[in-house]
Amino acid sequence: MNYFPDEVIEHVFDFVTSHKDRNSISLVCKSWFKIERYSRQNVFIGNCYSISPERLLRRFPCFKSLTLKGKPHFADFNLVPHGWGGFVQPWIEALARSRVGLEELRLKRMVVTDEGLELLSRSFVNFKSLVLVSCEGFSTDGLASIASNCRHLRDLDLQENEIDDHRGQWLSCFPETYTSLVTLNFACLEGETNLVALERLVARSPNLRSLKLNRAVPLDALARLMACAPQIVDLGVGSYEDEQDSESCLKLQAAIRKCTSLRSLSGFLEAAPHCLSAFHPVCHNLTSLNLSYAAEIHGSHLIKLIEHCKKLQRLWILDSIGDKGLEVVASTCKELQELRVFPTDLHGGGNTAVTEDGLVAISAGCPKLHSILYFCQQMTNAALITVARNCPNFIRFRLCILEPHKPDHVTSQPLDEGFGAIVQACKNLKRLSVSGLLTDQVFLYIGMFATQLEMLSIAFAGDTDKGMLYVLNGCKKMRKLEIRDSPFGDAALLADVNKYETMRSLWMSSCEVTLGGCKRLARKAPWLNVEIINENDNNRMEENGYEGRQKVDNKLYLYRTVVGTRVDAPPFVWIL
Amino acid sequence: MENSNSYSPYSSSSVDSTKPSLSVNLSLSLTFPSTSSQRATSQDWPPIKPRLRDTLKSLRLRQRGYNTALFIKVYMEGVPIGRKLDLSTFSGYESLLENLSGMFDTSVICGNRDRKHHVLTYQDKDGDWMMVGDIPWDMFLETVRRLKITRPERC
């Protein structure tokens, strides 16, 4: 029932860009479904095994941008063994065979190969943007293909990938006539970089906005690069060793001063402590600062830098900044929206760099704060209650107390009340990670109050199945639930099988679920892939005819899918 | 009580531990009250990404005056996806072989090829592939670029 011709409706749909909204409008009526289908430009697939490339192409024949995610989130922390899956090859092959005019490909936690990159580079004439995050399986040869063949490439953004660096000449594979580069991020490459090729590339890229260098780019090269690209908005400094050569330093400082568009600074992968002062002149414009790899820089230097950054919206930093440093952040960075504080001492050596005081200071000083990731050694309920009162606008709240099961260090109580206060106050909370000593009570609170929660990470928490049940029953919008080392078992897993159809995935490792329970789940829910991952046993579990009561050794990962069991699973993955 | 001084990884020192249930990191000086928390190995807890973990580990070693980490790639012939290993954590060839045997779940040795065992070879800084074990360990660390475990002889 349309009162307008299809082209008009399509034009209106162009203004609807979010995936959720596009999904909604496609449900209105058959006509809208069809129009939306053919006009969908950006497709997002949160789990590459939930659907096949063929079905994707049947539904959306005309898309230009594809985002694919492979391994589950806990793969970031070495919990998913090598070879588990997430291969992008079948996707690239299917897209290449079709007539899709792919322009953008964004992959996260997937296995990419040089052959795949070569095929990608040759198959799509208008290919513009390649973003790879936490991927692996390819080398600089694959990058060379992209550089050589993608005439219209704008973005090559490699974030934290495992890339086999052949120390080759991939940078010189960009043709001399190629001038359209906007984003170049190769910070994760470990090898030597062809500096001459890099400088020539930057010099002929007037549209370059984002440049993130690896650790092989020394100070004098950095100075020359910045002099060629004063229009830069986002800079990742590779290494910044303290040069005795003052001429290099002066040149760098002069170049930095000309970069008046610079808004985002990161890198400092190998950084001498005194290097930050060269950047003070541009600090007043910075909105984003990532110093999370600058492990050698002392807190005092970090503080001196941050004192100049009044417009900062995003700050990623190491806990060497200390509570005092966080107080400086709180009093200086009134525009702060996102803060991440990473640990420097992984073994709890007693160096309490940041504590609950730092967190409270931030919550009191930064009214716009909505996302936080905070690693610390200790926490109290009182502090969390104060934080909740100060910041009811949290969308993401992730607290990681380094020692599992650690209680409130003042009262020795579990931290149930503290996290309870957070979920009660923060009505828009979408993502939560809990830690410390926690009983089933905290999950009762989460189930009751965290109505918007979409992602929950649980480690070393809870007492009984009731905990997990509170969450599954209460959080109607839950999409991703990941649990490790918590005493939840079959009763919780099997209580509401249909719940998993509303979620993207569930991860449970080192919990109390048994093989029998997982088998029962798989039987009840054929639309789920129920995977048991056990890299120690290959298929011995099945061969030995393990008792159904046997606890699942290692990991359970289940996810909804419309294409059934995947065919690329390695021997140590058993799909029930 | 001072935390254990040396970063003492258990035998599987690569970033990806293959035996999490056996690899209790005894160097943690904290008292974990429950057994389940002992399953938190130093490779998967706290939840930080590998790159940060490596950076901090190098930092610790440097601060303590040790050499920085020496991560090299290890491939098993016939297996496309390799592993990474920090050679600076081994005392010599014996512990290296022991660790590799555990990591790849097979018997890995130095020496001539035979039918039963996998033989370890390495690529040196000239790009040549050599048998592991001929030169002193320290010299080996200076020259090794990557490792390959060859298949046993077939005929």
Automatic annotation (TrEMBL), chain A:
It holds the Pfam family F-box_5. Gene3D superfamilies: 1.20.1280.50, Ribonuclease Inhibitor. It comes from the Eukaryota. InterPro entries: COI1_F-box, F-box_dom, Leu-rich_rpt, Leu-rich_rpt_Cys-con_subtyp, LRR_dom_sf, Transp_inhibit. Keywords: Auxin signaling pathway. Residues 4-45 form the F-box domain. This is F-box domain-containing protein. It comes from Brassica napus.
From TrEMBL, chain B:
It is found in: Nucleus. InterPro entries: AUX/IAA_dom, AUX_IAA, PB1-like. Transmembrane segments: none annotated. The keyword Transcription applies. Aux/IAA proteins are short-lived transcriptional factors that function as repressors of early auxin response genes at low auxin concentrations. Belongs to the Aux/IAA family. This is Auxin-responsive protein. It comes from Brassica napus.
